[in-house]
Design goal:
This is Transcriptional regulator. It comes from Streptomyces violascens. Pfam families: HTH_IclR, IclR_C. This protein is α+β, with helices and mostly antiparallel strands and 214 residues long. It is 42% helix and 21% strand. The chain has seven helices and eight strands; from the N terminus they run H-H-H-E-E-H-H-E-E-E-H-E-E-E-H. A hairpin with a 2-residue loop joins strand 3 and strand 4. The longest helix has 20 residues. The protein starts with 6 loop residues before the first helix and ends with a helix.
């Protein structure tokens, strides 16, 4: 901690990060041990965060992330989209196909940024806001593959054909190493198969986007 930072705010943010990383919540004692502070400090932090709906406690006393975080999260998509656009533009122009950034939204895959190539005679129309099941299409399948790998392997790319639109093929690679964001970068094109060079190029673009979001 430096003189310009707030110890209390730092601890509160650490509480939120700890809770975000668990599905079953944490007790006051568990938070106290992880933060290295006494239980009284944790109680105060949780009480303050509860007032802002950022934390809730269940009947068993376990603390979890509250619904107030969702209101903050709605403002994340525009920032993420802006950071990703340069890499998506480069990808779309290089491949000559519609490039997209897709994030997990509940049980769906949600396209939050889309860039179409400027020089092609035709390309797939794919709009920001389009959503589909995670187990359909290259974008969702790439995210699920990254989940299964658990960050233990170098991410590859996923190829699909005709799963979301007849005659269209897709390639996507997951975002890796971006805290709090689960997503993928990909392209969709009107083709029976994805050209060999597209997969590695999509992986590179996903790395670029991840770097921009860190």
């Amino acid at each position: 901690m430096t003189a310009e930072t707030s110890q209390t705010l730092d601890r509160g943010l650490r509480v939120l990060k700890l809770l975000a990383d668990t599905d079953h919540g944490l007790t006051v004692t568990e938070l106290s041990n992880k933060l290295g502070v006494n239980r009284t400090v944790v109680y105060r932090l949780l009480a303050t965060l509860e007032q802002h709906a950022l934390v809730r406690r269940d009947l068993g006393g376990r603390a979890r992330v509250g619904l107030g975080v969702l209101r903050l999260g709605r403002q994340v998509h525009p920032l993420v989209r802006e950071a990703a656009l340069p890499a998506l533009r480069s990808l779309a122009e290089d491949i000559g196909a519609t490039a997209h950034l897709t994030l997990v939204d509940g049980s769906d895959a949600l396209a939050v940024a889309v860039v179409e190539p400027t020089w092609t005679d035709y390309h797939v129309a794919y709009r920001a806001g389009f959503r589909h099941a995670l187990d359909k299409g290259a974008a969702g399948r790439a995210i699920l593959a990254a989940r299964q790998a658990g960050g233990l392997a170098e991410p590859g790319f996923t190829l699909t054909h005709g799963e979301l639109e007849a005659g269209a093929s897709g390639a996507a690679a997951p975002l890796v190493g971006v805290t709090g964001i689960e997503g993928s970068v990909g392209v969709v094109m009107l083709a029976d198969a994805v050209p060999e060079r597209v997969g590695p190029r999509v992986v590179d673009a996903a790395r670029e986007v991840a770097d921009a979001l860190r």
